[in-house]
Design brief:
By secondary structure, this protein is an alpha/beta fold. It has seven helices and ten strands. The strands form two sheets. An eight-stranded parallel sheet has the order 4-1-5-10-9-6-7-8, with helices on both faces. The longest helix is centred in the first third of the chain and has 23 residues.
Amino acid sequence: MILVPYHQDHRLADDLLPVTAAVSAITPELPQGDLWSRLVALHDTAADAIAAEIKADGDTIVLSGDCLVAMATLAGAQRAGHDPAVIWFDAHGDVHTLETSTSGYLGGLSLRLLQGAHADRLATPLGVRPVAEARSVLVDARDLDPAEAEFLRTSAILRTGVTDLDVAKLPEGPLIVHVDLDVIDPGELPGLLFEAPDGPAAADVLHAVRRIVDTNRVVALDIACPWHPTSDPAVQQTRAALIEDLTRAF
């Protein structure tokens, strides 16, 4: 497992991503400069570690504090010789651009960045080949801004619900499965940064991930944990158990 304990370029507290499995933590000294240059440095280091683990073991798990790290996962898979499609579990679309985002939050661009948006900011410096829309599957995405809904209306991205996911319709070839844990209903997972009500149960998300893993085509499981710090033992235990369940599914 590769642990990237960051939200954007901000180093997270050690207890915010609770893991019991053996991990390789990525904590490089980031350069001074703008956010994008710091993200390139972080993702480049992470991508090398991800590539090495995929080459050694055939696959990897990447655990981080936000969805932007999926770019490092894609870079690592490509450096390991794969051309993966992306299965994106998320309560949100993550298909904004810098022009359409009203909040300026870069996590809302994460999937679109993988598909080549603003390539000069991350993809090109990392040597990443964009993923075609037709090789991207967006799972759930129940909370969309108007600009995202308009983009998805004509996009080639395949959309599906968690319980409706049909593995027979997934893109061919190797797969990266990205799971933003805010896809789960906040009633089961309190303390999320961006809660979206009326989501699927954790058990349904785990079942869908297992069905994809059972295709034997997953080269990376990318887990994003965008949640607030907590001192509540019950919440900490829920988070740790969920991460463990996902890693066991893989």
